[in-house]
Write a structure and sequence with these properties.
2 copies of one chain form a homodimer.
Chain A (H helix, E strand, L loop, with lengths): L1 H12 L3 E5 L8 H11 L3 H19 L5 E4 L2 H4 L2 H17 L3 E8 L3 H11 L2 E4 L2 E4 L5 E4 L9 H10 L2 E7 L6 H4 L2 E2 L2 E2 H12 L12 E5 L4 H10 L5 E3 L22 E5 L1 H4 L5 H4 L8 H17 L3
Parallel strand pairs in A: 1-2, 1-12, 2-3, 3-6, 6-7, 7-10, 10-11, 11-12
Antiparallel strand pairs in A: 4-5, 8-9
Helix pairs in contact in A: 2-3, 3-5, 3-13, 6-7
C-alpha cells in the first residue's frame, strides 16, 4: 500500500512535511532565468525550463529530509504544453530521488471521463495491448463534488498500481465554507464528504490503520479538522494552508494520532525561503537558494514536532 | 460578450448542439490509425496524432452547422504530453474554423492557484512584460466546491479577454445526487450553487439576457433542471447527458426560454455515429466517417427543435 510507504518515509525522516513545488518565475534566481531566456528567447519554453531547473535544485537539497513533494499542476498549465513538460519531468526527477509524489491536480468528472484521467495520472493507458504510463504520480488530489461514481475508476487504479488519493474534504481558502460548511441533516457537507472518503478507502487499508484514500483538510480551520479527525479515523490527512496561508503548527495537533495521521504542505514557505529575511542573511549567494529551502524544511519539522 | 457570440451562432445555425470532441482510439477508422502507428510505432504519439486527424475531419464536416465544440481534456491527458499537444491543436483548429470552443476541464483550486489555471486556459501569462496565450479556450467548465474566491480569478479574465465559464451545478452522472442533492436550509446544494452562479455572472451580462457565466446542468434530471431554470434566469445552460447517457430532447424543453437558454452536448452520439447501425449503412467507406457525424448533428438539431 502506498499509504504505508508514505508513513514509513515520514517515520524515517521524522518529518511530516511535504514540499509544495509551485514555482513562480519571481522565486527563481536570475542566474537560472537569464541562462534560459538567453537560450530560448522570451516565452513559455524558457520559463518552463527555468522552473524545472529550479525544482531539481530544490529536490536535490530536500530529498533526504522530507518524505514527499506536491507539485501543483496549475503552476505549470499556466505555461501551456511547455509548462506541462516541465511538470512531468519534475515528477520523474522527484521519484528518481526517492520522493513520494503527490500530484495536486484536483480533477473530477463522470465515470467514463474519470477513467481517462486515472489512466493518465496514476494508471496506465492501453494502446493496442501495450500499457503506457502518463504522469506516473504516487498520489493525486481529487474533487468530490460529482460523488462516488466519479471516484470509483481511480480506486480501481489504486488497487491495480499501488497508488493513492487525497480527496478534498475541507479546503484552506477563505470562502471554502460557502458550500462545504452548509448543514445537511445536522452535519456540514465536509463531514458528509468525510464519510464518503472513509468508505472509498475501505478496500485500500494499509498496515498502520490508514487507507490509501486520504483527505485534504485545510490547516486554517482547527475545530473542523478536529471533528474530521473523529469521523475519519482511517483517513490520512493532507494539510494545506500552513505558513503563508496562516495555519499554525499548534492548530494541527488535532490532526495527528500517536504522532502520525497527517502530512503538512508548505510551498512558498520552503521553495521561496531564500527570499525571506530569516534566510536571506544566511544565504547571500543566489546559487545557494536551495540551501534555504533545506533549512526551511528542518525548521518546519521542528515546528511541527513540537505539536504532534 | 462571448455569451452573445454563442447565442448568435446558435441562431445562425439554428442548432443548439455542441459536439463533444472526446475521441477514443476505438472510434477512429483504421485508415487513420494504421498510418500513424506505422509512422511512429505503438505509443501515445501515434494515438494522439490519430485523435487530432480524426478531430480535424469531424470539425471540417460540422463547422458550418453547429455553433460550438467541447473537447474533454481528460481524453487527451490520458495520453500524457502527446495527448495534450493534440488537445491544443484541436482547440486551435476548431477556432480557425469559426467554432466556439468550450474546454471541458472542470478545474478548481484556491485563488492563487485558480489564477494560474485561468492564465493557462482563458487568460494570458505575463512573462517579462510580454503576454502569452496558453490553451486559448472561449469557455471553460469549472467545479464550484471551493466557493467564490476560487472562481473570482476566472471572472477577471472573462472581463479582460471576453471569455466565459460553465460552472457545474447539477451533473449528469448516476451518483451526482450524493452531495449535490443534499438539502440545506430547505434547498438542495445544486440550488445553492445555482444562486452563486447567478451572482458570479452579474458583471458579465450580455445583450440577450444571459451572462457569460453559465451552468452545467445534466439532461438526466428533468425536474431539477426545471427548478434551476427558475432560480437562474440569467444563466445559460450547458447540458451534458443527451443521447448515450439517456437524456431525451423532451426532457430539455424546461431548460429553454423563447427558444434559447441552453446548448446541448453530444459526444459519442456524433463523433462515433459512423459506428451506429443507423448510419453504418449510409456510409460504408470508412473515409466517410465524418459525414455520419454531420448527419448526426442534423438529426440532433431536428430532434431538439421539436422540443424547444
Amino acid at each position: 500500500m502506498i499509504i504505508d510507504r508514505l508513513i514509513e518515509k515520514i517515520n524515517e525522516t521524522g518529518n511530516p512535511t511535504v514540499v509544495g513545488l509551485d514555482p513562480r518565475l519571481s522565486y527563481i534566481p536570475s542566474y537560472i532565468t537569464e541562462k534560459y531566456f538567453a537560450k530560448y528567447g522570451n516565452g513559455p519554453k524558457a520559463a518552463a525550463k527555468s522552473m524545472l531547473k529550479f525544482n531539481k535544485k530544490i529536490i536535490d537539497n530536500v530529498c533526504d529530509i522530507v518524505p514527499a513533494v506536491k507539485p501543483q499542476i496549475a503552476m505549470y498549465e499556466r505555461y501551456g504544453i511547455e509548462g506541462l513538460k516541465a511538470y512531468k519531468k519534475t515528477v520523474e526527477y522527484a521519484k528518481l530521488k526517492g520522493l513520494i509524489v503527490i500530484g495536486d491536480i484536483k480533477r473530477s468528472d463522470i465515470a467514463s471521463t474519470a477513467e481517462a484521467y486515472s489512466d493518465g495520472h496514476i494508471g496506465k493507458v492501453n494502446i493496442n495491448g501495450e500499457d503506457f504510463e502518463g504522469f506516473g504520480h504516487d498520489f493525486i488530489t481529487l474533487n468530490p463534488y460529482l460523488g462516488s461514481d466519479s471516484i470509483t475508476p481511480f480506486l480501481t487504479d489504486c488497487e491495480n498500481y499501488e497508488k493513492g488519493l487525497f480527496v478534498l474534504a475541507k479546503t484552506s481558502n477563505p470562502h471554502s465554507g460557502e458550500l462545504q460548511d452548509l448543514l445537511c441533516d445536522g452535519k456540514p457537507i465536509y463531514e458528509h464528504v468525510g464519510g464518503l472518503i472513509e468508505k472509498w478507502g475501505e478496500n485500500l487499508m494499509g498496515k498502520y490503520g490508514y487507507s490509501s484514500v486520504g483527505a485534504v483538510v485545510g490547516a486554517t480551520h482547527k475545530e473542523q479538522a478536529a471533528r474530521l479527525r473523529e469521523v475519519m479515523p482511517h483517513t490520512f490527512f493532507l494539510i494545506p494552508g500552513y505558513g503563508a496561508q496562516g495555519g499554525k503548527a499548534e492548530d494541527l495537533t488535532v490532526c495527528f494520532k500517536d504522532g502520525i495521521g497527517a502530512i503538512v504542505n508548505s510551498s512558498r514557505g520552503i521553495i521561496a525561503a531564500h527570499m525571506k529575511d530569516d534566510y536571506k542573511t544566511c544565504y547571500t549567494d543566489e546559487r545557494d537558494f536551495a540551501k534555504a529551502a533545506r533549512q526551511a524544511c528542518i525548521d518546519m519539522k521542528n515546528d511541527l514536532r513540537r505539536c504532534i
